Amino acid sequence: MDATRGNRHPVFCTIVPPHMLDRIARSEDSRRADVAQATLEHDALQRTRRRITTVRGLAPTALSAPPSDQPERTVYDAQHRTRLPGTKVRGEGDPVHKDATVNRAYAGLGATFELFLKAFGRHSIDDAGLALDATVHYGEDYNNAFWDGRQMVFGDGDGDIFLDFTVSVDIIGHELAHGVTQYTANLEYYKQAGALNESMSDVFGSLIKQYTLDQTADQADWLIGAGLLAPNVTGVALRSMKAPGTAYDDDELGKDPQPATMDGYVNTSRDNGGVHINSGIPNHAFYLLATELGGKAWERAGQIWYDTLTGGELRTKATFAEFARLTVGAAVARYGDGGDEHRALLKAWSTVGVPTT
What we know:
The chain contains 10 helices and 10 strands. By secondary structure, it is of the alpha+beta class. The chain has a 6-stranded mixed sheet with strand order 1-5-6-4-2-3, covered by helices on one side. A two-stranded antiparallel sheet has the order 7-8. Helix 3 packs across helix 4 (169-183).
């Protein structure tokens, strides 16, 4: 087990990667450029705050009784300011709110709680019944959503390139899954470990959407953030696990830069070493495994990923190859050597060019 795991450093994780916002910030449309620049400056400030402040409550609290099988959700309204958490507008069990954004956030928190509980026996983000808090209507034209180490925060988007960030349940699941990683493997947010951190959130975000829609692997779209891009944008989502590099190709956003295999691995100092770009490689490996196995992706493929994330052997600075080897071990431990799961996993990692031996 990684000896450093007890020293947890929650990261500031956004759903829209910096390279997309950087591109928009160079737009000839001054309003688009200004909104993107404001979002980038806000996100940079938040990342700095994460590095220099201590976040309490990172270790699950010792419980005298088993945690509840029901979520404890609270949704707040920032009223277009940036002070958190804002005004409470809906608590657990409260009636449906008149604001659809509030209701989508509330439902997304519940869907995430249910997937982790029903599929993996995990009680909330920390496995100890952690209350799930979310703030909506954050900032003015804020083009992002993030997990800040304590809670979810959603911008409304500018309505021009990005729509309301509660529109896709996989976005909500993605950000909350950063919390699961924070409380388990605590993957460092840099280079390959950071790309694994991002990929874990894409994997579980997609599984939450599939679980909510009761989809099999072949029925799923394997898109992250479908419905988030405004109608005038040439693209379907932020990322594609099925075909990394094809989610968008737009005059303002540029072309999706994600590689699907190690042949396209991007060496860069930007975006913490390309965490949002190179995550396409383990994303694609998971897609290949899930579709090869068929059925409900959370039942076998998802179980292997969850076992690897929570097994205690994944280093905080893990490489893709280390993670791949551990997934093979997890598959053998749960399903046996030489079975369908084992063979499909070896094939998936081989296809994306990541060694497992």
